[in-house]
Amino acid sequence: MILYLHGFRSSPNSFKARVMAERLAALGRSAEWCCPVLPVSPLETVALVERLVATAQPARVTLIGSSLGGYFATYLAEKHGWPALLLNPAVVPQRDLSHYLGEQPLWHGGGSIVVEPHHLDELRALGIASITRPERYYLFAATGDEVLDYREMLAHYPGVRTKLIEGSDHAISEFPDYVDDVLAFCDAADAGPPAPREAA
Q1: What residue numbers bound the domain in which 172 lies?
Q2: How many CA atoms lie within 13 A of 116 on its CB side?
């Protein structure tokens, strides 16, 4: 299972998610793809992902996390031992999203979400002070990210395989150029030993 976790106010209709879905479809691998709509609550997001995996019971799970989804992917990778590819991941989202309390419009399809102070507390509770097993991760960090500081990403993920993209933007607008590299990471992760599972 390739499990894509989208960013704040985003959705499965995000640019990068659609590029990934289309590439897998072209390869006849759509059955591997999972990109759920994530709840506004961070704790509910984690519970949803864990429930999806428990229901599907895939042999292996590889996470792809974009922006805030990268923060969730890091927590889940550390908890479950799943490999994770991170696309301009948020490092301190409880700080960054403190400016977005209240009703916020969604990027795709209309509608909105309401960010409440307790959501920031939930984010804080999911924080990983320092990662273990750097080989579990692949970090994509764009120096031109206008939303998040790539230097925080590099500092938070020391020793991990890193693609430092000169320029670009938060959305990684040239993501189609990297999609095969992303899939290669997923396939290499699948070729490794099964991830350890926690007892139910």
Answers
A1: 2-191
A2: 6
Lowest-pLDDT range, 67-76, 161-170, 183-192?
183-192
DSSP 47: H
Reference 136, options 67, 185, 87; nearest CA is 185
> Token digits for 196?
């350890």
Indicate the helix (H) or strand (E) that contains 34: strand 33-34
CB count, 10 Å around CB of 31?
8
pLDDT at position 191 is 52
User: pLDDT tens digits, residue range 115-174?
Assistant: 899 999 999 999 999 999 999 999 999 999 999 999 999 999 999 999 999 999 998 999
Which residues is 139 bridged to in the sheet? 86, 162
Q: Does the reported pTM lie above 0.85?
A: yes
Is residue 121 classed as helix, strand or coil in its secondary structure? Answer: helix
C-alpha 21/C-alpha 13 separation (Å) is 10
Domain CATH code at residue 22: 3.40.50.1820
